[in-house]
Inverse folding.
């Protein structure tokens, strides 16, 4: 349908630009990510195999942030091109949810002042809206039955009927 061919690139345009922005200039994003995730990482027990991730270096935060931005841009480009649209849209939703969590306005940052709370609230609402749009794009079956329906109805086709 023509509408999908127009709507998917429109939806993915923000994700492409945001992903490229993060890849080009990851430092501010890495600082926000580190500030948001540090309390969670501190809760990893020292005896856990994941204990080495308790205190990433700034270089590791930048690499993680760049990888996240590149994955976001790649999924958005796939959605815009119509390649695996459902999977790429759901990947965008999954990749954007952590960004929404980082921008929670009631979460306190050590270096944050109260002037940034309205901006973070605006960004949070925008990101939640984009996650919702990506989820909707991800569940769009384009009028064809989804995998779940196909699996549920696959058994009926192969039955051999005998007369008599």
């Amino acid at each position: 349908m023509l509408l999908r061919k127009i709507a998917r690139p429109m939806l993915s345009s923000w994700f492409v630009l945001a992903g490229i922005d993060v890849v080009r200039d990851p430092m501010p994003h890495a600082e926000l990510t580190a500030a948001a995730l540090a309390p969670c990482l501190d809760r990893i027990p020292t005896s856990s195999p994941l204990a080495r991730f308790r205190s990433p270096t700034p270089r590791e935060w930048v690499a993680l942030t760049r990888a996240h931005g590149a994955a976001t841009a790649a999924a958005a480009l796939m959605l815009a091109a119509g390649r695996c649209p459902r999977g790429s849209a759901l990947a965008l939703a999954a990749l954007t949810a952590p960004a929404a969590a980082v921008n929670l306005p009631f979460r306190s940052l050590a270096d944050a002042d109260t002037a940034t709370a309205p901006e973070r609230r605006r960004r949070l609402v925008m990101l939640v809206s984009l996650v919702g749009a990506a989820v909707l794009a991800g569940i769009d079956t384009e009028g064809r039955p989804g995998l779940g329906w196909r699996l549920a109805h696959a058994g009926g086709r192969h039955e051999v009927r005998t007369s008599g």
In short: The chain is about 65% helix and 0% strand.
